[in-house]
Design brief:
Shape: globular
Largest sheet: 7 strands, mixed
CATH superfamily: HAD superfamily/HAD-like
CATH topology: Rossmann fold
CATH architecture: 3-Layer(aba) Sandwich
Mean pLDDT: 94
Number of helices: 10
CATH class: Alpha Beta
Structural class: alpha/beta
Helix content: 40-55%
Order of helices and strands: EHHHHHEHEEHEHEHEH
Low-confidence stretches: none
Strand order of the largest sheet: 4-3-2-1-5-6-7
Distance between the termini: 27 Å
Radius of gyration: 19 Å
């Protein structure tokens, strides 16, 4: 007898400030080029104001410009290697297996998939310790020339660009070039947006949170308990009802995130049954 198709729950994650403290570049490619995070992002901000350009494209451009000025060659392999330096919040590296096992044991007929929607660098995410946990990663990418050197941005994913990937995942149109704007009836979608939880850490996550929540899903804002600014931003988002849940960025067993995620997936299954 053919195996019954499982219903799917999707957990969407921002990366920087959500799964790891700060920006992934700060502990990887920037030290390689001789920059601190404050120096580099200050330079990016200055360039963005002068050019009026998009902030994400600007940082990708400045990174290449400064690497060239220092005689450094940026390759996919370099990003993948440096990714080992990314440090995660407490419990992150064990969290995914724990949530997967919880669904497998307690929710027969259901599966959970994890996705990243990030303005960070995809090549770094693909090389990090948790890369294998994600069904797909939507993030910024570089184009590499015939010698394998990064030469210009291939994909730029800013905070509003991220929203299209919610629909790509829902409609099963995840491959580049597939038409995300084509109407796909609800019963033909890979996963309803109502079956999604978006987890982010700041104001740039609001567009994604809004789309998920308006379509019946849930949103969680997390904060770094050691960072006063992070706490204030998250408190404001929770107060203004931009998110359903407000949690410290601790993914260990029994933490608030661990508890909330498990309750959300149970709630999605119960709602579908009812």
């Amino acid at each position: 007898m053919a195996e019954m198709k499982k219903e799917t729950i999707v957990l969407l994650y921002d990366f920087d400030g959500t799964l790891c403290p700060g920006s992934m570049q700060d502990t990887t490619i920037l030290p390689e080029l001789g920059f601190t995070g404050d120096e580099f992002w200050g330079m990016v901000n200055t360039e963005r104001k002068a050019s009026g350009g998009d902030s994400t494209l600007t940082y990708m451009y400045v990174l290449l410009r400064e690497a060239k000025a220092r005689g450094k060659v940026i390759t996919r392999e370099l990003f993948n290697t440096l990714a080992a330096k990314i440090k995660f919040y407490k419990g992150v590296e064990e969290y995914f297996t724990r949530i997967n096992n919880f669904v497998n044991i307690n929710m027969k007929g259901w599966e959970v998939k994890h996705y990243v929607l990030s303005s960070g660098i995809k090549e770094l995410i693909e090389g990090c310790a948790i890369a294998k946990e994600f069904s797909n990663v939507f993030a910024c990418e570089y184009f590499y020339d015939k010698d394998g050197n990064a030469s210009f941005p291939k994909y730029s994913v800013n905070y509003t660009d991220k929203t299209q990937y919610i629909f790509r995942i829902s409609k099963g149109r995840e491959k580049p070039g597939q038409n995300v704007n084509e109407i796909v009836p609800a019963h033909e979608r890979a996963v309803p947006i109502a079956n999604m939880l978006y987890i982010g850490d700041g104001m740039t996550d609001i567009p994604c949170m809004k789309i998920v929540r308006e379509n019946g899903g849930k949103a969680m804002v997390v904060y770094d308990a050691q960072d006063e600014f992070s706490i204030k931003i998250s408190e404001a988002m929770a107060r203004d009802k931009r998110a359903d849940f407000f949690c410290a960025a601790d993914y260990s067993a029994g933490s608030k995130i661990d508890t909330v995620v498990k309750q959300v997936v149970l709630n999605i299954a119960a709602r579908n049954i009812l």
